[in-house]
Target: Protein RFT1 homolog
Amino acid sequence: MAAQDVLGQTARLASSSALLQVLFRVVTFALNAFTLRYLSRELIGVVNVRLTLLYSTVVLLAREAFRRACLSGSTKRNWTKTINLLWLTVPLGVFWSIFLGLVWLHLLEVPDPSVVPHYQAGVVAFGLSAVIELLGEPCWVLAQAHLFVRLKVIAESLSVVSKCILTVTLVILYPQWGLYIFALAQLLYATVMVMCYATYFVMFLGSPEATKKSFPIARVKALLPNFMEDETFVNWKEARLTWSFFKQSFLKQILTEGERYVMTFLNVLNFGDQGVYDIVNNLGSLVARFIFLPIEESFYVFFAKVLERGKAVKDQKQDDVAMAANVLELLLKLVLLIGLTITVFGYAYSQLALDIYGGSMLSSGTGPYLLRCYSLYVLFLAVNGVTECFTAALMCKEEVDRYNVVMLALSFIFLCISYFLTHWQGSIGFILANCFNMGIRIAHSTHYIYDYFKQSTHRPLTGLLPSPFLLLVYIFSGVITGFSEVLFCCDQGWMARLLHIGVGALCFAATVVTVFWTETKLIHFVRSQ
Model:
């Protein structure tokens, strides 16, 4: 597939994924606002922190490395061996579910049954849902590698909508069920996801459309593990790369979910405070999750397909290098401007957003300070997502192994800083520690990118330098909206709030106009792709 075609399909995949994440976040946003009025903070804290951490840890440890390794390179490979390798995620998921489930049940603090009933059932259900989801991993990788955009959108949309409908129904009818509600909803989510992928491939394989596309898998049976005579069960090059990525995934999970591990294992916050922190965290990460994550996932595929892993820039096709450098520069500029916008306007509108969303329970106390700090953290998340997706797509096995050593040291430092900052600043310490963590990771990735392109004429890191005039507009917008918050927000009635929103809207419009005026190359890229 030509590099330009890959870019077009990758951009569509990123756009569709971003729209999909908008749906997910909006639905989850509304669901949290709804459940806040029916369920306790403690129950929400156990579900959103303790049990979700169990599920995400099992899933990441079981499949993340396999995804990275099996999506590297072109789609022309021995897919039988790749599928065999992907099926190893299931026994690995069973192992991690049992091991971590025992830890969650017997080594961690158990919530008060009168406040959070049916904790044991919740642990079992969330672990089981992770294993169920892993059953669809070969289909997911095939779909992602061949850029099946609609399949991903439909499967994940149906899963989320089904989960939310069941949750709302049970919360209204049987609020006393406690964790049973979220256990059943999580199992439904995983089951619908796997059934969507399985149904699609059962219908697609052997069809005229599959033949027309020269799809490498011809029969449904080929999606199951297959032993081949006189050949190895898996591609050992992919298996070794998987092991390198596995070590990195383990460390990345600690860095990504570090604050949840500190909360879960060190008990620095009670379940109620964990619930508030998680709600603020979800609100603050809306843009990060529905824009930055789809861009990272989709353009990892693009860079892995266009450039060859482990090869120096001078040994690559120069047209592909030029395209990759241009795309990287524009992606950096795009996420930087989004991050700056969130940081600048998030500071002055955090208290108002929390007051509208959850009332005084969230807008009083540390809630607004948490969200303001998170607005700054979003800027770090924005840059790190793109720089790391490029380095992960290009690093050879030896470079991945060296990076794992860096990540190991960083993980230890991050956990220590999280613990001490939390004792000093409470839950805000988690966000400050995350900013430090992301800053170090950005420094490593940008150093790799600089070294990679230094033998060429391309300088994609210039995407991190917005125009001076645009920076000036951001500064003025931050100052004006800050004064507006002091004057109009948030205890002077709805008319004052509307005035505050109007001031923000004018400043935001001025910022957007300036972006269109100063960043014409970026605007053309977004419109064309």
Summary: The two ends are 17 Å apart (CA to CA). The mean pLDDT is 83.
